[in-house]
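Q: Here's a chain of 150 amino acids. Please give me its 3D structure as tokens.
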Amino acid sequence: MYSRILVATDGSKTAGLALQEASRLARGSQARLRIVHVIESPYGYADAWYSALAVDLDAVARAWRRAGREILDQAAAQAREAGVQAETALLETDGRRPSRVIVEDATAWAADVIVVGSHGRQGLEHLLIGSVAEGVTRTATVPVLVVRAR
């Protein structure tokens, strides 16, 4: 079936459901599992914005990386509890969309399938926040399994 499964997490309940499904697939097919978390880089397009607020960008970046690492550690523990060893990767946007970063990582890692959670936002909320799952689905060159919130 699948031999290399990439799952993206943002630490949400919905991402946890996606990780459960990815772990189930990995265990069932004895596939490798890679868990990724994407953080927005504070240095990119918002550099002038943060500078105007006299914010220490290095401190912001360290805090976001620390939070991202905690999300990945929790996700790896969840995968282990499901009987799957997983590798993790903390990715940064560097001005790119998070969905693009996920797809590029999946391509570089040669994933067979990408698993993402969808919060099911609609209307104005979807317009303002966007959908990482939708972006991954539109641009991925491998199958994408979208897990919806229950």
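Q: Can you summarize the key feature?
A: The CA atoms of residues 140 and 149 lie 21 Å apart.
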